Amino acid sequence: MSTPRPCALSIAGFDPSGGAGLLADCKTLEANGVYGLGVCTALTIQNDVTFERVSWVAPADIRDQIRLLLARFPIDFIKIGLFESLPQLLELTRWLKGQNPRLQLVWDPVLKATAGFEFHQRPDPELLRALCAEMALLTPNRPEVLRLWPAPTAEAAAEAVSAWCPVLLKGGHAAGAEATDLLFGSGAVQAFSAPRLPHGEKHGSGCVLSAAILAQLARGAALADACRVGKAYTATVLASNPSLLGYHFHNSLPHEN
Is 238 helix (H, G, I), strand (E, B) or coil? Predict the structure, then answer.
């Protein structure tokens, strides 16, 4: 007899192509052994190469979506993606913690669409500090972390922000034969590497990584282990085909020794 899957929630935008946002998150959660629930924050008009516009969901409707899910399902792990307003995001995270103080929140800060559409400018430092204080993990790429926190390098920015919450600095925008993600937290840095693939660029790869990490946390993994397995899962999606939309797989997780 199989045991029930844990639940995890994605609060994110709807991407009709399924490469990013809610659809990508729920595919990833399912493939990682977690039942994925979704709350829509935005309806985007896009595909894997073009972003035209976005229609934002009202904050009251976002809360109502969440409220009914929390009333029905045991949700201790939530990923947050595309959101209209960072001050409103802070209000939401504090409301969420009021509903369930055990919540572990993973924030994948979507500041700019792959096709170039900008959602947020640099936040006020105090707002960023307050947001990070509510998070279990922040998962920016290199351009995003420099937009969040000005610094000479992305590593320096990630280290500074990690004073408030752990930061996984994604390495997809760096150069070199390997793509290396760096986990900053508690004064230490851990590296997770995978070969850089010749046709490995994928629309929404950052969403996949953060959702895979969330799934592992929901399954009981420690943060570093969740990042390692999430990185390995994302590598299978990047290697799945040469297009910009990756395929997800069941039973493809690396086995523990």
Answer: helix
How far separated are the first and last CA of the chain, in Å rounded?
24
Q: Longest C-alpha distance within the chain, in Å?
A: 54
| DSSP character string of 83-132 | -S-HHHHHHHHHHHHHH-TT-EEEE----B-TTS-B---PPPHHHHHHHH
Phi–psi pair at 59, nearest 5 degrees: -55, -40
Amino acid at the residue 171: G
pTM of the model: 0.92
**pLDDT at res. 124:** 87
Q: Is a pLDDT exceeding 50 seen at residue 255? A: no
Tell me which CATH homologous superfamily contains domain 7-238. Answer: Ribokinase (3.40.1190.20)
For residues 177-200, average pLDDT: 88
CA distance 219 to 171: 25
Summarised one tens digit per residue, pLDDT across range 93-146 is 999 999 999 999 999 998 765 545 565 567 789 999 999 999 999 999 999 999
CA distance 218 to 183: 19
Residue 243 has pLDDT above 60, yes or no: yes
> Closest by alpha carbon to 7, among 37, 45, 46, 48?
37
Q: Which two tokens stand for residue 233?
A: 């899962």
Domain residue ranges in the chain? 7-238
CA–CA–CA angle 52, 93, 120 (5° rounding): 30
